Amino acid sequence: MSVQTLVIGVGNPARGDDGAGRAVARRLGEQALLGVRVVETEGDATSVLSLMEGAQAVYLIDACVSGACAGEIRRIDVTQADLPQAAYGLSSHRFGLAEAVALAKILQRLPPRCIVYAIEAASFDMGAPLSTSVGRAVDAVVEALSSELKKEA
Length: 153
Prior knowledge:
Layout: E1 5-10, H1 20-30, E2 36-41, H2 45-52, E3 57-64, E4 73-77, H3 85-88, H4 97-106, E5 113-120, H5 132-152
Parallel strand pairs: 1-2, 1-3, 3-5
Antiparallel strand pairs: 4-5
């Protein structure tokens, strides 16, 4: 199925801050933005590649561990820069988001517009809720991405 704009929330909501990407996706999905498809995935690289197929613009939201302060948000245009393997390659997913993006580049399947919103995680404890700082970051990413998507519509 071909879509113009796709938002992919990545993570496991049962593992604390790892659920940040999916929390953003869930809240954006409730907004029912015109022309935007919103999906959630645990982040398997092949699933992410399959979801991106045919989209003109993809926004990926995921938790990361880079050593920054918990809740810090980074917006990375991966058509212009690589996703640092150290911060995005290690995750609870089979392959990290960095591998999915790198594979899409190698296979020339990266959408013309591909943006990653990364939220620095504090905890990946099983059964834990989002930490307070990551919860605030989720609110900020929902607001920023919603605004960005409305401008594109």
